[in-house]
Amino acid sequence: MTHTDLLSSSDTARGGFTLVEVIIALVILTVGLMAVASLSMTSIWQTRRGFDLTNSALAAGQVLDGLSVLPYDSVLVGSYADTVSFGPVDYIVNWTVVDMTDSLSAGGGEIKRIYVLSGGGLTQTNAEPFELFIYKPGDS
């Protein structure tokens, strides 16, 4: 085989990739890596949001626990707010106390409704609202 025979051999006999094939492969790889990166960022954000939502509900639970152990007459009608911290993050807890004695049918007792909503954290996520009813029996 002479030198001229090697030069005239067909391109299919040579191994390797063309420049177009390499560029197409790099574009496909880039699109795949961008999809994985986007999925990772979404996962991190959703994890943070879930963390804030859980801590927001815990903050509301702490306020409800504190209010549930108070004597009935110590829970005053009105709107209130407090800050509850979990580590370096603060959560704002708002609660409203409403006297619902007028809507109580019979029995001569008293009832108050406490509506609690908390939110905050890095994603400013609000927990579901919570309600607590406290009852003071009437004199029988």
Describe it:
By secondary structure, the protein is α+β, with helices and mostly antiparallel strands. It has one domain (17-136): GSPII I/J protein-like (Pantoate--beta-alanine Ligase, Chain: A,domain 2), CATH 3.30.1300.30. The chain has two helices and five strands. Strand 1 (78-86) and strand 2 (89-99) form a beta hairpin. The longest helix is centred in the N-terminal third of the chain and has 50 residues, at 19-68. The termini are far apart. The model has no long low-confidence stretch (mean pLDDT 85).
How is the topology of this model organized?
Layout: H1 3-7, H2 19-68, E1 78-86, E2 89-99, E3 110-120, E4 125-126, E5 130-136
Antiparallel strand pairs: 1-2, 2-3, 3-4, 3-5
In short, what is this structure?
This protein has helices at residues 3-7, 19-68; strands at 78-86, 89-99, 110-120, 125-126, 130-136. The protein has 140 residues and is of the alpha+beta class.
Q: What summary fits the major beta sheet?
A: 5 strands, antiparallel
Low-pLDDT runs: none
Per CATH, the architecture is 2-Layer Sandwich
- Percentage of residues in helical conformation: 25-40%
What is the tally of helical segments? 2
Overall number of structural domains: 1
Query: Rounded to an integer, what's the Rg over CA atoms?
Result: 33 Å
Elements, N to C (H/E) = HHEEEEE
CATH fold field value: Pantoate--beta-alanine Ligase, Chain: A,domain 2
Query: Which homologous superfamily in CATH is the superfamily?
Result: GSPII I/J protein-like
Overall pLDDT level:
85
Structural class: alpha+beta
End-to-end distance: 118 Å
| CATH class term | Alpha Beta
Give the total of beta strands. 5
Shape: rod-shaped
Beta-strand content bin: 25-35%
